[in-house]
Amino acid sequence: KTGNTTSNPFNVFQERLVIAMIGLPARGKSYISASITRYMRFMGCPAKLFNAGKLRRTEGLTGTDAGFFDPKNTSAAAHRESMAMQCLDDLLEWMPLNGCAVGILDATNTTVERRRKLIDRCREEAKFDAGLRLIFVESVVNDAVLLEQNYRMKLENDDYRGVDAERSAADFRERVRKYESVYETLTDAEAGKDSLLCYIKLVDARQLVAHNIRGYVGQKVVGLLGNVHLSPRTIWIVLGGETVNDNEGVIGGDPGLSAEGEAYLDGACQILTSLVAASETKEGRLLVLTGTARRYIDAVERLHAALDAADVYAVPSDRMTLTLAAANDLCEGLMDSTSAAEWESSFPDEAAARAADRLNYRYPGAGGESYRDLVARCNDFLGILEQSAGDSVVFCDRAVFRSIRGYFLANSIEEIPFLEIQPGILELKRTNHGFKASHYSVDVGLATTKAGPGTKLY
User: Fold this and answer.
1) CA 243 to CA 132: how far, in whole Å?
2) What is the pTM of this model?
């Protein structure tokens, strides 16, 4: 007897975290909150974001001017305090009593008094749930360039939609000044008065201080925030070209590209070159990330040839290619390099088993992987994409494409195996709350049709 068996390590740990953000407006709190939420959902831990600004707007206070945030406006201050505590109550009501879960309170929480209320409320709740803990995450931004970028992105939110840009900027800066007048950063003195206080502090998303963070889930949050930065950038994901194995109906192996696959990738690289050249976030090095199979290396070489021809990132040191086995497609184990006819004769039950549970189904034999295995494997190179300050390009097949897309667009791990992946290029552009997706079709050649048994392409 093996007892309860799981492939998800988050099922092992009975940890329920309340993460309360701290920071002035435009310090990246919403982006950091969204990053934690999508990371946890991607890794298989339930997570939900509770945003005080969103609650304010649902109460009919969209477009409220800076006067509402003036601490001298006692009725508005009381209303803001009430909404923050309401968000926390909603979070605690959502929080399950068993298993792993992370709830994020996205609010300014800029005073010691407010933080004390959050602590007291969570400790009251912890009397009924010994696995519940509160962690504060403070984001401090002193870098003038980064702050200006954050200001510009902040003006895209609903409070300023349809409002003159200059007027919006002036009102928002006045809102910040109102908060600055009462802002109390989290200090060692505050922590010293409470030995149980847990916090993470980020300064310019470059320096990280972690205090009293324990447990599997808390350490995962620290690891994520060590990768996250606040600079704008763009990521392009390119589906691989057709291979000779695609033509023969064979999965796995290390096949070369077909003529149609070569034409498709040439077309994709021409589009990519135009997108990279026109990028508003083009600074630092261009990172090109892919797997180790020869079809991926061929794709990267075609991109570099297209960039050379267009004189884009012309200095060799301005481009970096990173090949990682972690970016290879799902390993089919004993079914590697087999055809549909061979699946039916040698593995008659595998297609039905995979179709019945796409997330947890693991290909038979040594090295055979499931989507859950793939998500864990992708964790490291997704951290590299998070860390990269410049733009990035990824060449991959469908399973890895699904994982990257699911991670950056906040899909849960259960949704990832079913994401529809169209041929072409997916552009992910950083916004105030996460990433915005755009798709570019490639009208020449053919993309890979590689798919495991029981899979419908689109």
Assistant:
1) 50
2) 0.89
